Amino acid sequence: MELVQSNINARISLGEREAFEYVYNEYYEMLLYVSMQYLKNPEDAKEAVQLAFVKFWQHRHEITEDSNIRNYLYTIVKNNSLSMLKSNEMIARNRSDIESKDLQYRYEALSYLQFDEMEFNELQNKINEAIERLPAHCQRVFRMSRFENLKYREIANRLNISEKTVESHMTKALKLLKEDLRPYLPLIWMITNLLD
Questions:
Q1: Count of domains forming the chain
Q2: Residues of the domain holding 84
């Protein structure tokens, strides 16, 4: 697979359309899935992905043998999707919810992408350890949101607290997780762009 990836990168850089079609077919569905998590609209998601491939082709000369095409496309699609949300003024109204869902979807994406199993296990362990280190209230709210897929309102009702308190715990949890996982950002970036 390493040789194939290397060859694909070189062929893309040289502008071979057959190599571009291979990359398109290889990553289109995964990128559409990523975009749908943000936009919730199939047409908008398709547009975000198409624009990503256009940009990828326009900047094909920047592709080197070591370039990670999957991560490159993932980043473009994520940025396209967020830009589309921002243009609809949705990000201002739903910033906290979007950020928490962003972490969830990136975490879930680990199981959809192919990479070295040892790196996958190491990253999962680091994430799980970081969650374990969260303050009790933050950890409980985070787990209910991320692993039980409960909405803020449902968590608030279960814990008999306000939605604002739930949002505050989630915001703090996300901030602490990003700080705690900062030493592992190179590994995280290499695998799935889990955190910004």
A1: 2
A2: 1-93
- Whichever domain contains 45, its CATH number is 1.10.1740.10
CA distance 127 to 176: 12
Contact 180, 172 (CB under 8 A): no
Whole-number Å distance between alpha carbons of 155 and 82 = 26
* pLDDT tens-digit map of 73-119: 999 999 898 888 777 655 555 555 666 666 666 555 544 444 455 55
Neighbours of 108 (CB within 10 A): 13
CA atoms within 13 A on the CB side of 127: 21
Query: How buried is residue 55: exposed, middle or buried, by Cβ count under 10 Å (0-12/13-18/19+)?
Result: middle
Predicted TM-score (pTM) of the model is 0.46
**Cα→Cα distances 107→18, 52, 170, Å:** 32, 22, 16
